[in-house]
Fold:
Amino acid sequence: MPTITNIDDLKRIYARRVPKMFYDYCESGSWTEQTFRENTSDFDKIRLRQRVAVDMSDRTIATQMIGQDVSMPVALAPVGLTGMQHADGEICAARAAEKAGVPFTLSTMSINSIEDVAGKTSKPFWFQLYTMKDEEYLRRLIDRAKAANCSALVITLDLQILGQRHKDLKNGLSAPPKLTLRTMANLATKWSWGIEMLSAKRRDFGNIVGHVKGVSDPSSLMAWTAEQFDPKLDWAKIEKLKEMWGGKVILKGILDADDAKMAAKVGADAIVVSNHGGRQLDGALSSIRMLRPILDAVGDQVEVHLDSGIRSGQDVLKAVAMGAKGTFIGRAYIYGLGAMGQKGVTAALEVIRKELDTSMALCGERNLKDLGRHNLLIPEDFEGRWQD
Structure:
């Protein structure tokens, strides 16, 4: 196993190993990709305050997210097509998260099904829900998540209409991949990925195929999916879904203070400040820029998490010091998964854990709960000065 010292080490291996269409699916945003880029570059504008001659022994980065004990304030975000990045990818990622003591979130658009993952793990995981027009399917999906003992429902709010991602369209993204001449030429250079995929339990969307009438092959699946995202999703429907679930609910995709207030009003247990990794509304502000205005709007009414742009333990530290109670990582663990499977996800989590712990110590803190804005140097106009 190569020496892994940062997330970029995993990304380089990932880029060599995984087919282009799935690499591009992960490593891209919508339209011009401005928001995708600024999700990471805006973290660089925040600096850390170094403190010295402080007792750095007996440190802890353990905390809680929605009342659940976690070894660090990091959850694995829901990522569609994870099982195309590596054979049985969702199972590999869930098992790595379980061993690391952090939550794993399974996407509706996963390759391995809810039941597949539950059968290969011993602790409850979170399930992410896309709201679909097919209410019967939606109800059955929620019932399946309950039966699998999922401990939280993560409802994604920012994908009522699919943002245009140029690379996915040009690559003809599908699961399994369509065998065009261009695709086959690329797959021929990714033989280790291909050999492993031959032994995979699934190569299509496990939460959909076999669970929706008339969906039995890739063409019927893609046609059904394209029509199913619900443009009529509103707060009344969110309340209905919350009631249907009956357990902990996290609302993901909040990027506006007024929406955060509404999320608190409907009784969400947590919200995730997120722009879908820059894959939906291009030109929107980065998640880290919007964190403080949202915190100012909701105070202690709802637990606030953040995703989009986190690539290091220092990014986690900055988000927590600014007030987030937890963070979600997507691309950072996908790089590890695509590079080395379950071991790669473990490596990604270990990199983030070490960076967070070491950076916290060098900021003069021993307990994650003591982090605050006093540990940061934030530009005066970081949140921006915008015309009303």
